[in-house]
Amino acid sequence: MNNNIGQLYTIAGKKKRHIIGLMSGTSLDGLDVALCEIEGHGVDTKLTLKNFVTKKYSPGFKADIREVFSKNEVSLATLTLLNEWIGERHAEIVNLCLREWNILKEQVDLIASHGQTIYHAPKHLHHIDKFGNGTLQIGDGDHIAMRTGIVTISDFRQKHIAAGGEGAPLAAYGDYLLFKEKDTNIILLNIGGISNLTYLPAEGHIFSTDIGPGNTMMDAWTQENFSGMSFDENAFIARAGTVNEALLAALKDHEMIQLPFPKTTGPELFNMDYLRAAQKSTHTTAISIHDTMATLNKFTADLICDAINELTKNKAKTKIYISGGGMYNILLMEHLIKDIRNATIDSTAEKNIDPDAKEAILFAILANECIAGEAATFSNLGKNFPAVSMGKISFPR
Length: 397
Description:
Blueprint: H1 3-12, E1 16-24, E2 30-39, E3 46-56, H2 59-66, H3 76-101, E4 110-121, H4 123-126, E5 134-138, H5 141-148, E6 152-154, H6 157-162, H7 171-179, E7 185-191, E8 194-200, E9 207-213, H8 216-225, H9 236-239, H10 245-251, H11 255-258, H12 272-282, H13 289-312, E10 318-323, H14 330-339, E11 343-347, H15 358-372, E12 392-394
Parallel strand pairs: 1-4, 4-6, 7-10, 10-11
Antiparallel strand pairs: 1-2, 2-3, 4-5, 6-12, 7-8, 8-9
Helix pairs in contact: 3-5, 7-15, 8-13, 10-12, 10-13, 13-14
């Protein structure tokens, strides 16, 4: 037997596995690194978060990614080089974390790397008849494995597409294993660059869906208008403005927003071009920076509230557990608390899951299922939820 296969066999047979989950989102804040202890698999999964940190990206790192991020035309040479380069940088961050945590690489069984999403292209956005759904994450897993000496599982989204899904959001798989309750309707709301949710009803099929923009348009507007600022901290900019109702209505007027759940989207749609088109159609290009931010904040909030209120309508009271950077936007949260009906809102910390670490944790869960689980665990769970094991395996030698 090949030694690498033997190593996988040993890892799969362990009672507990130590897996580092890596997540780098569309906000480009940094790399989330979550060291998880995972016992069992499937519905018997038990997880303990042992260490977590977000290693912030330097301005230069962000600038390099933005050269190819969510653009229709990029330098093919730059994109090719960044694939390996980001993998190497992520490996360096893992090695740094292990030194800081005083943990040997031999004590870690697997790395689960989401990679850096560069472009997400579901068919309902690209409208090219001969092509299906597509997505691209870079940050090569072989380079991570070689530089860390740890078996690495990466590129999770391609199997989901190959099995008929859109490649996103994948959170539902981990959400189902960690948060499902027998007699309660649960919504896991994540507000990152894009807002998305997983719906875990007490009865019936679960599903996971993108909703619309989370922080992505607010962040882009901040970066365009305030030098040195990457996001609207404490909603300072939005609070100084007033919602422009005409602009808000135009922002909501898009076919993607009207599509039924589940659906996926990304910064490929919700970006500054989208905002400028809405401004032009409503003759609001001259309104203040602060009024525009207040309107973008309300746009994000309204789409989330509309989605959740539709799900909770005529249902027993629902529990919402929130995660992602948007939960720290005070004004956004005020909108949600005011306008979401028939539901309570808490952080995922109420379920002993650090909300900042949640997405990295979920990819550690997917890696655990890839090695030790059964795809049948996810059978018959609903539309856009193919029962598959996801991830490509890279060996360190």
